[in-house]
Automatic annotation (TrEMBL):
It comes from Acanthosepion pharaonis. The keyword Membrane applies. It comes from the Eukaryota. This is Uncharacterized protein. The chain crosses the membrane at residues 43-65, 71-96, 103-124, 130-147.
Length: 174
């Protein structure tokens, strides 16, 4: 049997002159049946490799995404609460001071407005401290919490915990 004339090579005679394909065609001419088996990977190994890759990628992606998202969410929520608390405290202090100064006919109301201004400044400082503390605590706690067994639905729980802590902090700061 000449090169390029076997049953595997019908319609591909123009490729036999390519230097890349010459060793493969000569191998197919010498061992036509065993080469076909040798060239394709066994289905069993492909299945094992796909199972291994899917397990590895799911574990790696779940751990990486859960830690990344927990830290990102805690930092994002802490920055958001700090900005919101500062804005609300400044707005409320200015609004209360103007409103109560306009209504301050008596000295007691004026003293009450000063007291409320001091209280709003104190609450502002407290909210900044709490937001920093909660961001550090959330990032540490959620990073440790992410390393629990993999059969739990971790991402959903971390988002729920972050939202609960955010709502708790928002209700405390406002």
């Amino acid at each position: 049997m000449f090169l390029g004339t076997g049953p595997l090579h019908r319609g591909t005679r123009h490729l036999i002159h390519e230097p890349v394909f010459r060793p493969l065609y000569s191998l197919c001419e010498r061992y036509p049946r065993s080469t076909a088996v040798w060239l394709r990977p066994p289905l069993f190994y492909v299945k094992i490799l796909s199972i291994y890759l899917s397990i590895y990628l799911s574990i790696y992606l779940s751990i990486y995404l859960s830690i990344y998202l927990s830290i990102y969410l805690s930092i994002y929520l802490s920055v958001l609460t700090v900005c919101l608390s500062i804005y609300l405290s400044i707005y409320l202090s200015i609004y209360l001071s103007i409103y109560l100064n306009c209504l301050s006919i008596y000295l007691s109301i004026y003293l009450f407005s000063i007291y409320l201004n001091c209280l709003s400044i104190y609450l502002n400082c407290l909210s900044v401290r709490l937001s920093i503390y909660l961001s550090i605590y959330l990032s540490i706690y959620l990073s440790i919490y992410r390393l629990k067994p993999l059969w739990e639905n971790k991402l959903r729980k971390s988002v729920q915990i972050s939202l609960c802590m955010y709502m708790l902090f928002f209700s405390i700061s406002s």
